[in-house]
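User: Some background: our group keeps a shared notebook of sequences we're curious about, and every so often someone picks one and asks for a predicted structure to add to the entry. Today it's my turn. The entry only has the sequence so far, pasted here. Could you supply the structure so I can complete it?
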Amino acid sequence: MLRTWLLRSAGLARPRRCLHGLREQPQVSNPRVPSFSSIRRTLTTEVNAEPREERIPLRKELKNEAKRLKAQKRQKRGNEEPPRHEGWELTVGIEIHAQLNTEAKLFSRAPTSTSDVPNTNVALFDLAFPGSQPEFQVATLLPALRAAIALNCEIQPVSRFDRKHYFYQDQPAGYQITQYYEPFAKNGYIDLYDYDGIAPEDGKKVRIDIKQIQLEQDTAKSQEYPPSRQLLDFNRVSHPLIEIITMPQIHSPATAAACVRKIQAILQATSAVTTGMELGGLRADVNVSVRRRDQGPGENQYHGIGGLGQRTEIKNLSSFKAVKDAIIAERNRQIAVLESGGIVEGETRGWTIGSTETRKLRGKEGEVDYRYMPDPDLGPLFIDLQLVSTLRDTLPALPDDLMNMLTGPTYGLSSEDAKPLIELDDGVRLEYYQDVVDTLRALQQDQDEAPQKSLGRVAGNWVLHELGGLLTKADLPWDPTRVPAQTLAEIIDQLLRKRITGPTAKQVLAMVFDGDQRPIQQLLEEENLILRPLSREEYIAMAEAVISKNPQIVANIRQKKQLGSLGWFVGQMMVLGKGRVEPQRAEEVLRELIQPPE
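Assistant: Of course. Here's the predicted structure to add to the notebook entry:
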């Protein structure tokens, strides 16, 4: 078939998912290879080519091919190495360290900026200078409280600081100040839903309990220069952190990654942090254990919780994919050790991106080895419950609230479209989308009520797919000023009023994207892009011209009643009409001419 030949000759690799996760784009290995749109134009201009009896859109064919290749990969892995985790239960607990959004450090007045010259944003206490004392900075508590409230924690009226002793070059004092025994927040939880990317076996929703959230100071940044040189930057020392400790209630690598992703989204929504994993502002440690599903309670204790296997800890995971991949690798390693008659040792392990195995870093220190003790230089931390109440009442909308709003009757988006609007570009894209919808509704006030209900979905398609696709193709970051919300709303308004066709609307969007600053109405008039509806006679003439060139196809349609092939004929008419053909009217005329009513 022509489509198959074109795909092979173009050298298209397997489809890939683009940045926005919502469209399938072909991966082109040669810059001279024609684009998806050019291939499609070639297909539609081949008037004499016979279409498939059962027409499948090219986009759907590419999508199906991607699914087939993924299924083949999964099957290949299964044939090479049967899944070892059958009959075993995985248990994961997560510890997340997040840098708080503050200007001052936790126990000194030095600024928290880490982008300046090394070792310039430091105070004497940060360097553990003899005689220096910690001075708790009250402002650092506010973002920590917002995070704890958003994670449904109980805020403790009184909390205390402890010293966690260990000797490492990035900890100049020989101990880290944290809140081990009496943290400022306890007993929280986070709800994960299917749209968050949890494992299918977890159903529609799973709740993960949060044991506690504690304040603590960050360590120095070390830079290794093999074979034996190591430089230290103390700018990061005493940067305020919160450590979020979940209960060991996660039983899937995918759900563990979804948990970290959701927590990061909540922290960013509440302005508790300024950066996420991608910029190093959030790091995750995962505790992994396995046990046979038929194992009785009381065997291999895990933090005093009976029935769970010996855990290992994987430190400093810096991406959601790393969380998932490291857990899978460590699960498989532990199962292999146990099945061979060995014993899983409690230890700290590391993970390198792109690896297939975790690596041992050191034997796991027990809690007693850290020699926790109350910090003698810091008094109790008292938190006014009225402050907590005020922060709770002024908390911004959280990701689940935004999801419910966007998928509800106000906007009517699918969860697949709502999710990237919430997650991408720190909320800037969502604000842009809402501006487009508000403007479009104002422009469409004189229209019937029915179109008004679908404006949110239409705007979502243009913001995510059309404008987002242009940015992706140009390899540019999100920039709401490139195509102002008012301008995009005016383009969509002209389309909905049928003053321009869909292809023309995309052409106009591309012109504005490339820098055309003319008002939309002026641009349409000067470029002669306003739709001048064809008469019924013109539709009939074009339909007859296309039909006359393909008598055999028409005969087959009439004999077998394969009206699905009409879409191919509509495409030929749109080529002939040069942007003036309305697909629905073209199909109506084709139906009348090719298969008149009996």
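Suggested note for the entry: The CA atoms of residues 544 and 593 lie 8 Å apart. The chain has a mean pLDDT of 83.
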